[in-house]
What does this fold into?
Amino acid sequence: MMDRIRGRIEECGDDWVIVDLGAVSLRVHTTHTTLAQIGPTGAEVTLYTHLYLREDVVALYGFGVREERAAFERLLSVTGVGPRAAQAVLSVLAPAALRDTIESERVDALLRVPGIGRKTAQRVILELKGKLVPLGMPAPAPPAAADSDLVTVLVNLGYSVAEATEALRGVPGQEGLSDEDRLRAALRYFATP
It folds into this structure.
């Protein structure tokens, strides 16, 4: 997997840059933030990359800092968010601003992103709350596959994904308990001061 590329800028577009690597030039899609930082044509640039592969699309995305690439990859994990939408989000919100927006559940800030509607903005907040951590810090462990339905129920009751996961981990003697019993125990966990 390509982690980063280093080369000379040949050409810039609205949301892409062509980087000359010597014998090869690559078209790299990027955010407005990175485009503003990389300098003029002819300048040397280092971009942290993400290779997006699907059966009908092969595209390379590049970012000026690792945090931006990490946020891009987290956004791709959200149902219904593709690379173009993730790129648009990071063109409007820097990684720290995106994290603050998600943690404070400010849907209106995400609605400023072209192509992001209310449902997608709400889904981004729901699926990424508690998951965007500063680079170098461990991300919270995802819920076990068997717990995903219970986590969804708890999230629909108003708890965050992180809170729901922690509550389910705190259920004593999980073996042999039905989902209903585990849900009741998780709710008792929240009721305990």
User: Anything to note?
Assistant: Residues 135-140 have pLDDT under 50 and may be disordered.
